[in-house]
Amino acid sequence: MNDLKPNSQQVNKQLLARRRMLKLLGAGAATAVILPETWLKPEVEVGHLPPHAQTSSEFVTLSNAVRAYNGTICSSGSGDEYQMTLDFNSPSGGVIAGTLVTQSSIYNSGVTTSFSNTLTASEISGTAFAGSISYTFCATFATATSVTTTVSLVTPTGGNSNTISTTMSKPSGAPSLPAPAQTGESGG
């Protein structure tokens, strides 16, 4: 039975022969430099990043922002109703109900308005990974003839999006209410 088990001298000769064969068959001198004469136990060091060095892997990409006039005055009477629609892509699937939309508008008359709104499930179509967002808000052009609207998102888990902008001319037929105002009146 002892004849079936190789002794340590036989094992060492086999390992040495394999190492030489690898050196000869490999990339010549480059392989010889890489392969040590004896095998060494690998060393692994594990560490942790301090909180300020850690980054969130969640980033939402926004695209195709469109601001459209709905043709009605908001039920609150604070302006005209507009629809904002934009596409999103979230590799981590973070766009869900509770995502915060921040929107600011700069009118060519010099007036700036902004609001934040938490999205509901009915304002998100597609999946949490990719789809579109569509919400309504109230605004008025008053004496302005164009507006640039900028939108960004923050997901419930703290992921951020890029900032996307769209410019719109005052729609024909849109009433001129007293002064630009904007509220996050979701759903009209």
Describe the structure.
The protein has 188 residues and is mainly β. The chain folds into two domains: 7-40; 59-183, Immunoglobulins (Immunoglobulin-like). The chain is 13% helix and 38% strand. It has helices at residues 8-25, 29-34; strands spanning 59-73, 80-89, 100-107, 112-118, 124-126, 130-139, 146-154, 160-161, 164-169, 182-183. The strands form two sheets. Strands 1, 2, 5, 6, 8 and 10 form a six-stranded mixed sheet that branches. The longest helix has 18 residues, at 8-25. It is rod-shaped and about 95 Å long. The relative contact order is 0.20. The model is unreliable at 178-188 (pLDDT under 50).
Short account of what is shown:
The chain has two helices and ten strands, in the order H-H-E-E-E-E-E-E-E-E-E-E. It has 188 residues and is mainly β.
Tell me the strand percentage band: 35-45%
CATH level-4 homologous superfamily of the largest domain: Immunoglobulins
CATH architecture of the largest domain: Sandwich
Instruction: Figure out the total of helices.
Output: 2
List how many beta strands DSSP finds: 10
CATH topology of the largest domain: Immunoglobulin-like
Low-confidence stretches: 178-188
- Count structural domains: 2
Could you give the order of the helices and strands? HHEEEEEEEEEE
Find the structural class using helix and strand composition.
mainly beta
Helix proportion: 10-25%
The CATH class of the largest domain, by name, is Mainly Beta
The protein's oligomeric status is: single chain
Mean pLDDT: 77
The rough form would be described as rod-shaped
Biggest sheet: strands, sense, closure? 6 strands, mixed
Rg from alpha-carbon coordinates: 32 Å
- Terminus-to-terminus distance: 88 Å
